[in-house]
Write a structure and sequence with these properties.
6 helices; fumarase; 5-stranded mixed beta barrel; Fe-S_hydroAse_TtdB_cat_sf; globular; lyase; alpha/beta; Hydro-lyase, Fe-S type, tartrate/fumarate subfamily, beta region
Length: 186
């Protein structure tokens, strides 16, 4: 089922999203990969303020290419999410509501998604140029020295994603595999 949501991503919006739903996201999201996540958690460890407000926000695990003329951003394909697994539970505990990436997540992250009523979306790997077209505006927010991995604030319109792990812990990767194996036994 295709659904449209607008950020901020509140708990009420998350509870209506189920594993397998196709979602079009409009509003503000942030980009960050593992180097930026490490710095965010280090700030938390020191009791310092983060350069972004993660409450009810979505972080897209992406290191976009430079923008072409007339575009807000270049290709923006998802990064493999397990690289953020060591940091995601800390951010979820302080209000991060959504993550966008690709691939499996650890049990600790899934447990934290359920505990914090959050959600994990997958963006389509290989569709980086198409995803980039959903970005209306991109502003550098923090960690410019990280280049493509710096934190950016994106304004997106109808960014296409799929719910992989919903707030109840239902995991599309596991469901899909189970359904496929069941179909072989019929």
């Amino acid at each position: 089922m295709e659904k449209k949501i607008t950020t901020p991503l509140t708990e009420d919006k998350v509870k209506d999203l189920k594993a397998g739903d196709t979602v079009l996201i409009t509003g503000t999201i942030y980009t960050a990969r593992d180097a930026a996540h490490k710095r965010l958690v280090e700030l938390l460890d020191k009791g310092e303020e983060l350069p972004i407000d993660v409450k009810d926000s979505i972080i897209y695990f992406v290191g976009p290419t430079p923008a072409k003329p007339g575009m807000a951003i270049g290709s923006a394909g998802p990064t493999t999410s397990y690289r953020m697994d060591a940091y995601s539970p800390r951010l979820l505990d302080i209000g991060l509501r959504g993550m966008i990436g690709k691939g499996l997540r650890s049990k600790e992250v899934v447990d934290s998604i359920v505990k914090n009523k959050a959600i994990y979306f997958a963006a389509i790997g290989g569709a980086a140029a198409l995803i980039g077209k959903s970005v209306q505006k991109a502003d550098l927010v923090a960690y410019e020295d990280l280049g493509a991995e710096a934190i950016r604030k994106l304004e997106v319109k109808d960014l296409p994603v799929v719910v992989v792990i919903d707030s109840e812990g239902n995991n599309l990767y596991e469901i899909g595999q189970r359904e496929y194996l069941d179909s072989l036994n019929k």
